[in-house]
């Protein structure tokens, strides 16, 4: 009787293991068959919303600070000496400003990321206007979200809303758009040169 029960449990274990393996293979098959290009728009929208939710989560934290000790490592002083010897003192000035205003720098980097995702989302939109003016809409929506974020922070204990933080948000979003515009211009010029080489009579 004990051997029979043991064999029964073993059979169930093997059966459920096979079910689980089939489930995993089904997931892998779905991933392989997934058309990323066809669903790029929905993927970008999802990533943008998740990123915006991440910013909202960070803004909801009462005690959120960047440890300054991480910038006081020996290599930082060595880099400072190198920049001084090269006459690039302005880089040290920028680094010092970033050190004493790390919260503003964090805002810039966070909203730079948001600006990238917003631009890509608008660029892959089916709406012609959104696609053509992706950079403008990204800046506008990024700043609007920054305003709502600062308003939200005013209700979080230990946090305050600041026009300087909003300015840093706007700068981060705008820098992302400037980089995109530069890349688009470079790409267009490269295509033009390529077409000129292929069509010498043009």
List key phrases describing it.
mainly alpha; about 80% helix; single chain
**Helix share of residues?**
over 70%
Q: How many strand units?
A: 0
- Uncertain residue segments: none
Average pLDDT, all residues: 79
Beta-strand share of residues: under 5%
Structural class call reads mainly alpha
Order of helices and strands: HHHHHHHH
Q: What global shape is seen?
A: extended
Radius of gyration: 26 Å
Number of helices: 8
For the termini, the CA-CA separation is: 90 Å
* Major sheet size, sense and barrel closure: none
Structure description:
The chain has 202 residues and is an all-alpha fold. Helices cover 79% and strands 0% of the residues. It is built from eight helices and no strands. It has helices at 2-33, 40-59, 74-85, 89-100, 102-123, 128-132, 134-153, 163-198. α2 (40-59) runs antiparallel to α5, α5 (102-123) crosses α8 (163-198) and α7 packs antiparallel against α8. The termini are far apart. The mean pLDDT is 79.
Describe the structure concisely for a colleague.
The protein is an all-alpha fold.
Give the topology, please.
Elements: H1 2-33, H2 40-59, H3 74-85, H4 89-100, H5 102-123, H6 128-132, H7 134-153, H8 163-198
Helix pairs in contact: 2-5, 2-7, 5-7, 5-8, 7-8
């Amino acid at each position: 009787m004990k051997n029979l029960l043991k064999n029964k449990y073993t059979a169930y274990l093997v059966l459920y293991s096979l079910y689980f393996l089939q489930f995993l293979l089904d997931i892998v098959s779905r991933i392989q068959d997934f058309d990323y290009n066809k669903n790029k728009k929905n993927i970008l929208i999802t990533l943008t919303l998740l990123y915006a939710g991440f910013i909202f989560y960070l803004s909801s934290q009462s005690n959120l600070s960047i440890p300054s000790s991480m910038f006081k490592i020996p290599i930082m002083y060595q880099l400072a000496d190198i920049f001084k010897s090269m006459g690039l003192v302005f880089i040290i000035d920028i680094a010092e400003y970033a050190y004493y205003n790390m919260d503003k720098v964090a805002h810039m980097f966070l909203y730079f990321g948001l600006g990238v995702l917003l631009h890509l989302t608008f660029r892959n939109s089916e709406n012609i206007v959104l696609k053509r003016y992706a950079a403008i809409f990204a800046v506008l929506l990024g700043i609007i979200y920054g305003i709502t974020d600062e308003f939200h922070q005013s209700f979080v204990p230990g946090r305050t809303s600041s026009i300087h933080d909003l300015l840093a948000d706007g700068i981060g979003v705008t820098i992302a758009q400037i980089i995109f515009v530069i890349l688009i211009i470079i790409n267009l010029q490269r295509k033009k040169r390529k077409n000129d080489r292929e069509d010498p009579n043009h």
